[in-house]
Design goal:
2 copies of one chain form a homodimer.
Chain A lengths: L1 H41 L2 H32 L3 H30 L15 H21 L2 H9 L1 H21 L4 H33 L19
Helix pairs in contact in A: 1-2, 1-3, 1-4, 2-3, 3-7, 4-5, 4-6, 4-7, 5-7, 6-7
């Protein structure tokens, strides 16, 4: 009995460490998204280069998460709910790493937008970035807290991100039509806006994983949020 | 000894079934990508609607893969290499499901491109689709065969996909500049081409997972393929 108690405690500690690692990854990814959009608006090329460079951290943290998750499974042989939590951690770390890739991709576009006058939708992107990074933050908190209800609330917020994106998309298209010289630059902004919108999708995706880890039910069984890749309304 | 042999055999059979499930998912995803591009070129609206509908299959297969992987870990408590294989299967199934999402997204755009004359780059998309679905096919074969070398060869092919995409991207931009009336339609084609290009990235990503599962080494330790999200050259 004492041994069993000890084992459970050790497992809980390992799992807490795994969750802390995911939170750490989330912090990096949120920072990278917000910072890449700040650099974009302020044309901070050095800042943008730094984000590209720092993405390695997330890659290494993902590897570390996988290593620890595998070790935890091998040493502690968790069952049922606990195993579901470890598998969720594995999958969530991949998604967070991908959010970092979007920030890196945005940062790489910063120097390409240097020349020429201001493009209006540019100023809306940081606000959209704020919306999606808050989703990432809250959904990872929901994972740490095993809070299925909080995960569902994050999923519901993706609709507003999609609407925001659609409005930016249309503005960019109008911009392209008014002046063909803007087309190259606007195409980059189109992809940047899309990247930010995709971060919202990924937060939603994590929300589904958190919901499953916490309840054992796939969200598919109930009315589903708009988690899928959207199509622009033109 | 007999019991141990039996257990190992049972594990191998379970793992083979898991691999077969991933191959099945891959078959669906490859078909969906190719078929979505055929529907696009031939304006087959019914075919496109069918792909959107059939994407549910991939979602269910991913859930089934996860269920079996978790069961396999819980019942057989695999160690080291075997556990790495199961974790790879888990992660790969998520990526294949995402490839299906790209096909679904392309299919949803088919009705939006209905009106108006032919756009030249359209005819290049099926060829690009063929390149990336072959990558998906070969990299999943590499997973089934545990062939790290074959995985590396697939990764190397992503460069050609990126070049192809870049050429389509530029053509579309020229197209937009020549006639502003084309901008809405071209924007959809831009996202479709991007989706196809992303499938190549995902095949590359799977290649890295296969390499790790087969060798225990992350590909990061050696000269790395161009696995990351690209930036268009304008």
């Amino acid at each position: 009995m004492a041994t069993s108690g000890h084992t459970i405690k050790a497992f809980d500690e390992d799992l807490d460490r795994l969750r802390a690692l995911i939170s750490e990854m989330g912090g990096h990814a949120e920072h990278a998204i917000r910072e890449s959009l700040r650099c974009l608006v302020q044309q901070d090329l050095d800042g943008a280069a730094k984000i590209v460079d720092e993405d390695k951290k997330l890659d290494l943290l993902e590897i570390e998460t996988e290593r620890r998750a595998v070790q935890l499974i091998a040493l502690r042989a968790p069952m049922a709910t606990d195993l579901r939590d470890v598998v969720a951690a594995l999958k969530i770390s991949s998604v967070v790493e991908r959010i970092g890739d979007y920030a890196k991709n945005i940062s790489k576009r910063v120097p390409l937008l240097e020349s020429g006058g201001a493009i209006e939708p540019l100023s809306l992107l940081p606000e959209m970035g704020r919306m999606v990074t808050e989703m990432v933050h809250d959904v990872l908190n929901a994972f740490v807290e095993r809070d299925a209800e909080a995960a569902l609330q994050v999923i519901e917020r993706d609709k507003a991100v999609d609407d925001f994106y659609n409005s930016i998309f249309r503005t960019l298209l109008t911009y392209m039509m008014e002046n063909p010289n803007n087309i190259g630059k606007s195409a980059h902004l189109l992809f940047i806006a899309k990247n930010v919108e995709r971060v919202g999708d990924h937060a939603t995706n994590i929300g589904e994983m958190v919901y499953y880890a916490a309840t054992g039910q796939h969200i598919m069984d109930r009315p589903k949020g708009d988690d899928e890749m959207m199509v622009e309304k033109i």
